[in-house]
Amino acid sequence: MQKKTIIGWREWVALPELGIPYVKAKIDTGARTSALHAYFVEPYVADGIRMVRFGIHPIQRNDAVELICTAPVKDVRVVTDSGGHKEERHVIETPVRLGETEWRIEITLTNRDTMLFRMLLGRRAVRKRFLVAPGKSFQQGQVPEDPQFLSFEGDEE
Known about the structure:
Blueprint: E1 5-8, E2 10-15, E3 20-28, E4 34-37, E5 40-46, E6 49-56, E7 67-72, E8 75-80, E9 86-98, E10 101-110, E11 119-122, H1 123-126, E12 130-133
Parallel strand pairs: 1-12, 3-11, 4-10
Antiparallel strand pairs: 2-3, 4-11, 5-6, 6-7, 8-9, 9-10
């Protein structure tokens, strides 16, 4: 049996195809799918392909840093949040990097302005890859000391 990597209940992840160098994610085994904060979502069609343009504030409690991302739309689904509210969300598929591991996941786009974490990494994304230690945090390391991250400094829990 292959040994699984241990991750904490919160970890730093990167979404390289979206140009997001890092975002603090809550590992949520109670959520089936992953969710990413998008303060606006604009669907459009380009060359016959359904696309979505969206804005993200990747740092908690900091709306000054914003990234505009685009991605092909994989699906549009009705998702029930933890409060039982149903919402139609655009679904994209993109690579996520956690520590040394990178793989493709589905992510729903939703406004998470009122939530502490800008991203949820759901159970479909982590199953068969990781063991979650609910009492631990950042088992795959802190944000790298790298010039591309300088504009993101100051993110504190």
